Amino acid sequence: MAERRMFSKTVIDSDYFLDMAMTAQCLYFHLAMRADDDGFVNNPRKIQRMVGASDDDFKLLLLKSFIIPFESGVCVVRHWRVHNYIRSDRYKETLYKSEKSMLIEADGVYDIPSGMSLGIPNDNQAGGKRDTQDRLGKDSSKDNIYGVADAPKKTNQPRFVKPTLDEVAAYCQERKNNISAQLFIDHYEANGWVRGKTPVRDWRACVRTWEKNNGKDKMSAPDTYDNILI
Q: What is the pLDDT of residues 22-47, one digit of tens each?
């Protein structure tokens, strides 16, 4: 296995990557540094503990599809071949051929075939199946679904699209609620657009909830958030 690893700025300079907490970014770098020549990591939780990252950092990497988990506990760095090219005379194939056979690869990016779900053990759970969109670079528009244990059933709800600062500001102005659009955006960007363990489905409902809570996102009684679509 090669001792040197490289990182593509297409991935790590993207807003989608830089929006994550520094601890999640650090965990990503350490996972990639310790991956084998096909991008597989057999001890992601050990590495998480070693670098002092939290479970939320690990979940965020799953949520944003920077890593793909398997039931065996192994994970793979999704953009591995975007980052690294290893000469054939130095390349050593992964030991995790079964997991590798479950994946498809296009343009250096690992994906899960349509209709297939990959689960992970309870101690590696990421909180549910999520539809995530690859937003790395202008040419990346493919949608990818990564299944995780205890996934909720699919619904016909429209896929969530993050609002722009102008959209939030216009909505707040329309409702005359004096909420800072920048503070609202910064808050949800920092936590990956989730509330608790639930992905945000309707940002306007979140704005209305902030109105009820005097411009803050307070995690109080569940019925306080009856306007949020889950």
A: 999 999 999 999 999 999 999 999 99
Mean pLDDT of 100-111: 90
Is residue 76 a contact partner of residue 89, using CB atoms and an 8 Å limit? no
Tell whether 1 is covered by a domain.
no
- HSE value, Cβ hemisphere, 13 Å, CA-based, for 59: 20
Rounded Cα–Cα distance for residues 135 and 66 (Å): 11
The answer to whether the beta carbons of residues 113 and 62 sit under 8 Å apart is: no
Q: Cα(first)–Cα(last) distance of the chain, in Å? A: 44
For residue 204, the enclosing domain spans 165-225
Q: State whether 34 and 131 are in the same domain.
A: yes
Integer Cα distance of 76 and 90 in angstroms: 20
Q: 97: which 2 tokens?
A: 């051929």
